[in-house]
Design brief:
The chain is an alpha+beta fold. The protein is built from five helices and ten strands, in the order H-H-E-E-E-E-H-E-E-E-H-E-E-H-E. Among the domains are: about 60 residues, wza like domain (wza like fold); about 80 residues, Outer membrane lipoprotein wza domain like (Outer membrane lipoprotein wza fold like, Roll).
Amino acid sequence: MWPKCASNSLAASNPQREKKESNKSWLRVGISLATLSLLFLPGCQTYTGETLPESATGQHPGVLTAGDTIRVSFTTAPELNQSEKIESDGRVSLPLIGQVYATGKTTAQLQEELTNLYKSQLQNSEVIVTLENVAIPIVVSGEVQKPGKVVFERPATVLEAIMEAGGFTAYGDPKKIAVIRQVDGVQHTQIVDLSEVLHGRPGRVMYVSAGDVIYVRPRFVSF
């Protein structure tokens, strides 16, 4: 008589355990497949993004940047008063003293600097600096007619930025527009749905900030 194999005897004595382990394996496979389907089926995904902070990274309220227009007024020499746009290199050209770097300074800081610079040129060197126009440079990319940089000199909305870039292409998806903004060295993304507005229904207005990147995704493609 052949000796009984212990492993065979154990397996034969626990058929219900084998069945339970098999069921668990299929259950794990089923859960994995369900998870994958949720990840890859566009209709099942929900995009909530986050609510963006109001100020953009590298752009602090009251700080001058290229494209801004300032008004420089002289208390005792009004004939020298003038408005100057800050050039792309961050400088403005002023009478008697030439070019002065303005980007990254507040109007108060620039005003103090100019007062000191004009001491050797004017008997009363008091200078007043005010901000006339603010430049809001942004980038619009993805499914728009004219992707690239857009600069506003007034508050503008996401929709206005897209229209300034020529509007949507035939493949542009107005439901999931990514607005990317840097704040304190961290990139934040908010998903904006403009489909309601484009169909004539009321919708929430979102304004752009300097440095924003707006990406219009193609239809039926997930982020």
